[in-house]
Specification:
The complex is a heterodimer. Helices cover 71% and strands 1% of the residues of chain A. Chain A is built from 22 helices and two strands. The longest helix of chain A has 50 residues. Chain A is mainly α. In chain A, strands 1-2 form a two-stranded antiparallel sheet. In chain A, β1 and β2 form a beta hairpin. By secondary structure, chain B is mainly alpha-helical. Chain B has one domain. Helices cover 71% and strands 0% of the residues of chain B. The chains are: A mainly alpha, B mainly alpha.
């Protein structure tokens, strides 16, 4: 998910790679392109290209769902959080992801899949009106290509520091690979590669945990080494310690921010309205598979912290001076490692050639997963939500298939451009990431009210979204202060120590602003006639609902899967309290 | 109220004649059958990686074994990846995708049972 620590400060510490590692990497890249080439054969219509023809089984869309989120920025960032904040980092997984994924699968998917919308903005068009649709389509398209660029730049930085390739070479080569397999294979190419990436990423991370834990003397050895190191070390092993309101000592701030800001607004906003995620579920072959997509994704999500947070903690013991390099991207090439270097440094210290190649491949695969998810959702929104309704209507389908391919090329080119701009101005990455969370947080309020309150009107939805977005911007700068260039506009209005906590409270402000304005404007304007809302709002049944698909066997029941995931999360939370 | 919708979208829905649902699934299944089987690719790649790592692991120098705290990680990961790959290939073998030119109802049932998710 979004966080400050995605600022990658890749620094010195070349990996001792040899021919064997490069061979493993080369084989992977060949397979990636091969998947794109083979997926191309299944594409005859724009829907095949942009929605995989709504044909994929749930295990594939479910793993792609989690893989689209398991980008390298996420992996390196969460390991950094693990080193910096300790066990509290699981909040990003157990509170900040699993409940929202279960909610998406059990409660929201019937509206998304059942109404046959092709995208998240498309839902807003049918539930509210065209202005709401345009507002969301444009902001999403813009944010996607910018984030793709950030991924690309982060990738180039890591390759530069690990392998010594120049930044521009890495940017162009990796963009070239992503471009090739998405332009050829469309969403199927992206999703199939994401599933493959998922397994390779795991194969790369698991050895780090095993060898790392063995080196530091197991879990108890790890705990002892860190706790004996300093007074703050002990706090790293407490998940809910110090979350009192008023004087939080927990690095993630107080419990209100964690539960409502992270757990409710940010998490639900990201998982249920971010089209890069929801698109994977829409590619499933029937409603049951669509519902199971985020639920299947939730199970790996529960256990991934073991592969990110534990390496972060191990790195605290094994990497001398970890965190001394600051947290800024500007120290690239500096001698002292930053928290973000946790996993790359451990790879160099612990893994022999061979396994090292697998881990490196997994890391690069994760970068491509992050970027490809953004590009493949961008081209769908651009083609179906921007170009077709507002520029060229009623063309034959082959025309839109071509538009989809051109949009892919355009999206990647803009991504490359963003990457080069970001390489010149390091703090641009912060702003882009901020932008994304700004558009996500209020959106969840608009969806929640739209799905459960028939009376919400088109203009209520539009002005609510605008107010929520403004609220997010103002909320952000209220906590950080505002400087435009050298012009100091204002100081922070309220002081909140933890940056993460600032984000959580900013999200709460955005949500409340959106909800209040949506309700107030709705009460003053006319709602849409009820028959236009069929299948989109709770309590208005859809006569054209798609067929339910074959009856799933008992272990495929969405309710069982969903509550099972919540149950495991609860038990684990109690164990690691 | 959400329960209400879930149930209506669920398999107990009696307003949808079953014949209609088969007709509706036709185009989707053909797209699915034109797509290749991903399980084969994952299986083949992991078997290949497994073999490469295992062979590399056999010739690991003692320096490299020491680096990993005495764990022969190349051997072990190679073995694990090989087994995972083999499992995927076995899955394909046991539940193949039905690539059919004129899908019959029986074959369609086979497709939807195919890769369980």
């Amino acid at each position: 998910m979004t966080q400050d620590s995605l600022i990658l400060a890749a620094s010195g510490g070349r990996l001792p790679v040899n021919t064997l590692d490069y061979l493993i990497l080369a084989i992977y890249f060949l397979v990636v392109i091969g998947i794109g080439v083979m997926a191309r054969r299944a594409i005859t219509t724009s829907e095949d290209f942009l929605l995989s023809g709504r044909s994929l089984p749930a295990w594939i869309t479910g793993l792609a769902f989690i893989s689209a989120n398991l980008g390298a920025i996420e992996i390196l960032g969460m390991a950094a959080n693990g080193a910096q904040y300790g066990i509290s980092t699981v909040h990003f997984y157990w509170i900040g992801a699993v409940p929202a994924m279960v909610f998406l699968g059990l409660v929201m998917m019937p509206f998304y899949y059942g109404s046959r919308v092709h995208s998240v903005p498309d839902y807003l068009r049918r539930r509210y009106n065209n202005p709401t649709h345009q507002f969301n389509a444009w902001t999403f398209a813009l944010a996607s290509v910018l984030i793709a660029g950030v991924n690309l730049y982060a990738l180039a930085l890591v390759i530069q520091s690990l392998l010594g390739w120049p930044i521009w070479v890495s940017i162009i080569i990796s963009a070239g690979f992503v471009l090739a397999y998405i332009t050829l294979g469309g969403l199927s190419g992206a999703i199939y590669n994401e599933v493959l990436q998922f397994f390779v990423i795991l194969a790369g991370l698991i050895p780090i945990v095993i060898v790392g834990l063995s080196t530091v003397g197991g879990w108890s050895g790890l705990k002892n080494s860190i706790e004996s190191k300093s007074a703050t070390g002990a706090a790293l092993f407490s998940q809910w310690g110090g979350v009192g309101v008023g004087h939080p000592t927990n690095p993630l701030g107080d419990w209100i921010g964690i539960v409502f800001g992270l757990g409710f607004v940010l998490s639900f906003g990201y998982w249920t309205t971010n089209f890069a995620e929801v698109q994977r579920a829409l590619a499933a072959k029937d409603l049951s598979a669509g519902q199971r997509t985020p639920l299947i994704g939730a199970y790996p999500k529960i256990f991934i912290p073991a592969l990110t947070i534990i390496p972060g903690l191990i790195a605290l013991v094994l990497v001398p001076n970890l965190g001394k390099g600051g947290a800024s991207i500007t120290n690239t090439g500096g001698a002292e490692p930053t928290y973000n270097d946790a996993i790359p440094r451990l790879m160099g210290i612990l893994l022999p050639n061979g396994v090292l190649g697998i881990a490196l491949t997994g890391l690069l695969a994760a970068f491509m997963a992050g970027m490809a998810a953004n590009v493949s959702s961008f081209n769908t929104v651009f083609t179906y939500d921007i170009w077709r309704p507002y520029f060229r209507r009623d063309r034959p389908d082959s025309y839109y298939l071509r538009v989809g391919r051109f949009a892919t090329v355009g999206g990647v080119l803009i991504g490359i451009l963003t990457a080069f701009i970001a390489s010149g101005y390091s703090n641009i990455m912060n702003y882009i990431q901020l932008l994304f969370s700004i558009f996500n947080a209020p959106l969840f309020a608009t969806f929640l009210i739209g799905m459960f309150w028939k009376r919400a009107t088109p203009w209520g939805g539009f002005w609510g979204l605008v107010a929520g977005t403004l609220g997010a911007v103002i909320g952000h700068f209220a906590f950080t202060g505002l400087d435009i260039g050298s012009w100091h506009v204002w100081n922070p209005w309220v002081t909140i120590e933890s940056t993460q906590s600032q984000n959580f409270y900013g999200a709460i402000i955005a949500f409340v602003a959106d909800a209040v304005v949506t309700v107030v404007v709705s009460l003053m304007t006319a709602p849409r006639p009820e028959r236009e809302l069929a299948g989109l709002v709770s309590g208005v049944p859809n006569p054209d609902a798609p067929p339910p698909g074959p009856k799933p066997v008992w272990w495929q029941s969405p309710k069982l899967l969903g509550f099972g995931a919540l149950g495991i999360t609860l038990v684990l939370s109690l164990i690691f309290l | 109220m959400s329960n209400d919708r879930l149930e209506r979208g669920g398999p107990a829905d009696d307003r949808q004649p079953s014949a209609g649902s088969v007709d509706d699934r036709n185009p989707q299944d053909t797209t699915a059958s034109r797509l290749f089987d991903l399980r084969t690719i994952i299986g083949a790649l992991f078997v290949l990686y497994g073999v490469i790592l295992f062979i590399a692991g056999l010739f690991d120098s003692s320096a490299e074994i020491d680096k990993a705290n005495g764990i022969r990680i190349n051997l072990w990961l190679g073995l694990a990846m090989f087994l995972l790959g083999a499992l995927f290939l076995l899955w394909v073998r046991l539940r193949p995708l039905h690539v059919s030119t004129g899908p019959s109802a029986a074959e369609q049932a086979g497709i939807s049972d195919g890769p369980p998710g």
